[in-house]
């Protein structure tokens, strides 16, 4: 079998890998991308965790379940009576699978459009060869590829709790949590992080009694405290039962349920029995099968591929991006790094600004933020001014029937530069973009306060929060 020659080989076709491949191809390189993910029929399913069992299917189910909840609870207030409302979970899951497939197909189309050679199989380092590296592909495609540059974007896997391996029937990772085929009467979730809250919300809306057991004594410790507290109150009102400060003990799967022994925050030993248990306690980098040792690729003490600020590994011309390296495990962070690496390979100055990466939790209401939280500013001794505006006082939010939450601005006490923006409320995922742009351009709160925002729109709450920094809100 002859070796196929490329300028760049990308391992992994998640958001980090496929975007790096496209950018490298745009810059004139010959590019191969290898990914091992298969769909139910064994065909290639590029897009990684994000497309197959992450961002995309979770948002599809969040949307469907939100429609279901609105139809059951808030349509009547709008004067829309729905008689005989019923859940067709099979159709809901089918739609989610279709949305995933559209994304898989879209990436295959983009590979073709950009003349990227796609190989479906597992890639591993075979050794340094010629001016670069040999990469073996095993699976549907069996090839040896050679390239001067290799970009590793192999992503992450759900972390297991010791003694409770995922069986995806009773003990579920994100994969199983997105494919439960009958609404569990009692759903347990361990970990009140992003996945726990999003998946907990989906199944609660569809009728499950959801209990989330969190190890830390506070909810969403990385989120601005005021916003996290507000979100916690709203989740409790919706019926999500979140127990903080739990020490998880033995997890025992039975024939059709699973019991969890834990000690609660008051020190009381509890045994809870659930029909299904989702474990969402973070993710571990995926370097399985890469044969990193064959080329001496260095990992850090936590198993991530060790990289510098430019995503360079210890090996010349081997780069790594996305979940498999340090930093937030977010699709858009992976994409930014992928673009930056392709541009560096081309001799350009690709850059990822870690200070302006937005975070979004797609609960209802959504939580979104960029920059520093109030507690971080205090800890770092930075003098700041704060201003917030509640959606309750926003006309569009009232018309939507969703007035929960607020927008909060944090600005430098002396220069007024925006240091952080935190939102809990309707469409926070979209509203946060304005703050990201503003922070990239080092805008002040006054800059946003002086920009004309359409009326009536949720974005007026952003303007008003910026005005609030200077105690000049107009509508509150
Ligand atoms: P991945 O997407 O994991 O892709 C890695 C790819 O590499 C996979 O296809 C894998 O099969 C392949 N691979 C691995 N090893 C090999 C090998 N040796 N050979 C060939 N192929 C290999 N992030 C957001 O920003 N927004 C969200 O809304 C969001 N929602 C999420 C919801 C859930 C339930 C989960 C689990 C995650 C979510 N994330 C979200 C996180 C997001 O999915 C990841 O940050 C993102 O997928 C990371 O991209 P990546 O390219 O680094 O890796
Ligand atoms: P996470 O890091 O968001 O949350 C894990 C939670 O589990 C934390 O609150 C942690 O304190 C808790 N925990 C850890 N060990 C525990 C234990 N032994 N007992 C009880 N609680 C424990 O991780 P999660 O939810 O698994 O998601 C992984 C990552 O995927 C996220 O950090 C995020 O990067 C990404 N993601 C992003 C989404 C988005 O952008 N909307 C959606 C879903 C996932």
Task: Name the descriptors.
476 residues; alpha/beta; FAD/NAD(P)-binding domain; Enolase-like, domain 1; 3 domains; seven-stranded mixed beta sheet; five-stranded parallel beta sheet; 14 helices; 22 strands; binds flavin-adenine dinucleotide; binds 1,4-dihydronicotinamide adenine dinucleotide; FAD/NAD-bd_sf; Class-I_Pyr_Nuc-Dis_Oxidored
Please describe what this structure looks like:
The protein is of the alpha/beta class and 476 residues long. The chain has three domains: 4-158 and 284-346, FAD/NAD(P)-binding domain; 171-281, FAD/NAD(P)-binding domain (3-Layer(bba) Sandwich); 358-470, 2-Layer Sandwich (Enolase-like, domain 1), CATH 3.30.390. Helix content is 32%, strand content 25%. The chain is built from 14 helices and 22 strands. Strands 1, 2, 3, 4, 5, 6 and 17 form a seven-stranded mixed sheet that branches. Strands 8-15-9-10-11 form a five-stranded parallel sheet. Strands 18-19-22-21-20 form a five-stranded antiparallel sheet, sandwiched between helices. A hairpin with a 5-residue loop joins strand 21 and strand 22. Helix 1 packs parallel to helix 9 (331-345) and helix 3 runs antiparallel to helix 4. The longest helix is centred in the first third of the chain and has 25 residues, at 89-113. The mean pLDDT is 97. The structure holds flavin-adenine dinucleotide and 1,4-dihydronicotinamide adenine dinucleotide. Residues 11-17, 34-37, 48-50, 54-55, 58, 122-124, 153-156, 174, 195, 286, 289-290, 322-324, 329-332, 334, 362 line the site of flavin-adenine dinucleotide (FAD). The site of flavin-adenine dinucleotide has 38 residues, from helix 1, strand 2, helix 2, helix 3 and strand 4.
